[in-house]
Design a protein that fits this description.
Helices cover about 35% and strands about 20% of the residues. This is DUF2442 domain-containing protein.
Length: about 140
């Protein structure tokens, strides 16, 4: 069994107190059905919002289900009990709305003027090159 010193415990507690002072955490969250966004109030006085349709587990949820958002006791996450869904505040603020696979699905279906223009240019050149059979 590894023995942990009092100094190590004190250092860890101070590190935790510093994180509480400096890192933004959620104090409240609610769903704005008019805009389709989840709005999160942070401990630093800022407000953060994201489209609910982007959050993993929220894609097919009803407005009533999304409105049942809860802030975790630590303030580092959002929780939807009926949907069995959790999203982290640091992840959301970094633009991560779910797992890597979920983010790939979101990125693959997005449309932008740049993607449309690139697809048109590629089509004008004859589209994607055909795969060559290995001989």
């Amino acid at each position: 069994m590894v023995e942990i010193s009092d100094a190590a415990i004190d250092a860890a507690l101070e590190c935790g107190r510093e994180a509480v002072r400096e890192e933004p955490r959620a104090t409240a969250a609610h769903y704005d059905a008019r805009t389709g966004r989840v709005i999160v109030d942070l401990t630093n006085g800022c407000t953060f919002a994201f489209p609910s349709r982007l959050g993993q587990g929220l894609e097919g949820a009803t407005p009533e289900q999304i409105a049942a958002v809860e802030v975790s006791p630590s303030g580092y996450g959002l929780h939807w009990e009926d949907l069995d869904t959790d999203l982290s505040i640091p992840g959301l603020m970094a633009g991560l709305f779910g797992t890597r696979a979920h983010m790939a699905r979101i990125a693959g279906r997005s449309r932008s003027p740049a993607k449309v223009a690139a697809a048109r240019m590629n089509g004008a050149k004859g589209g994607r090159p055909r795969k060559q059979a290995n001989i």
